[in-house]
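Q: Sequence in, structure out?
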Amino acid sequence: MASRTLLAGLMLCSFWALARADDNTTKKPVSTLYSDKLDTTFSINLPENSGDVNFFLSSPLFSWFGVGFSSTMAGSPMLLFYASADGKAVTVSPRYATGETEPAYNSTMRVAVAASTVNNGTFAVTGTCSGCRQWSSNSTTQPFILAWGADADFLSTNDLAARVKQHSGYGHFVMDVKQATGPGGTAMLLALDATKNSDGAHLDGDLQADTGNHGGLAHGVVMALATLVVAPIDVLTAGALRRWPVLNIITSTVMMAFLLAGMGLGIQMSRLYIATQQYRTAHQILGLLAIVALFLVAVLGVVYRLIVKSATKRGQQPPEKSGLLGKVHRWVGRAVWVIMLVNNGLGLQFAEASSTLIIGYAVLAAGVLILVGLIRWSIYCCTRHSREELEEDKAGIELAQLYAPSHHMGHGAGH
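A: Exactly. Output:
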């Protein structure tokens, strides 16, 4: 009896061991990448004879997280993940990248989300992407890219075409697409146990922290210096120091150099983002118009100075209408300066700068504008008396010249 019981026990143990062995040797058609640095898991399952990609992503709540189905951004289908508007689910945006620029929403790629949650600073999402696969059906491995946005630029929206700022880090990885091919779908991915191990995938090199493109900051600093420092000096030299035209030429040249440098940086940054690539934003339009207007103002100033210089060489007064050129040069220049001050504020708003920075700039710009106005008014008041005396002396000379001939004629007749 005891021997029969022992035999039965041994048989049960054998069946259990065989079942375990069979379970261990039957791998599910899934490839998984886990990054301990990001505490992020990304898994895929690829249905046979289909272009779909079933995916699972679990990650801390970055501003956004992106996965590209290629080795580089150029020509890569991508999925961008960010919190929904209510902060309770995940928005999955299918996009297409044309280069090292913001990827654009692609409506030809379709995403069906099976489940998504946001909980305790972590999001998880499972779904299917139609149109993400571009590799050959004979491929065994496939390169991927990943990137994530800065925590400070947290994004929470349902908009599939929402603007995203430049990534703060990126990396490359490789997945075994042959291992991931087979039945299962999103139901299988949802049933998988949470894992902190890679299986059928590995990082290709280290994750890279992006120092960022500082072109936007440089553009803002250069334009701020041009409008808050150089332009006020130029306005004062153009209006109050006309006796020293060379000084005005120097300040105008310096200001134009600053503006051209700022414009160049702005054009460079415009290529990186979808919203600015067509140059249709108010900030871009006003900026370009202001610079064109300043070039025209500079031409008027040069023409005016040439007319004055030519008349002075001949010992004549400049034509009366030439003074109109000088007034247009000065007043249009001042108006363009005010427009540039406003446009800087529009630039800060467009860049989604903090309210503190925008308000601080507005206060500073208003203060500079008022200060220049007060200085200009003070100079005008101080020099008004001198101008009146000059006009009186000029009128006296003209009267003396007018009556001198008749006076001499009368004196000669008396003799």
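The chain has two domains: 31-209, 215-392.
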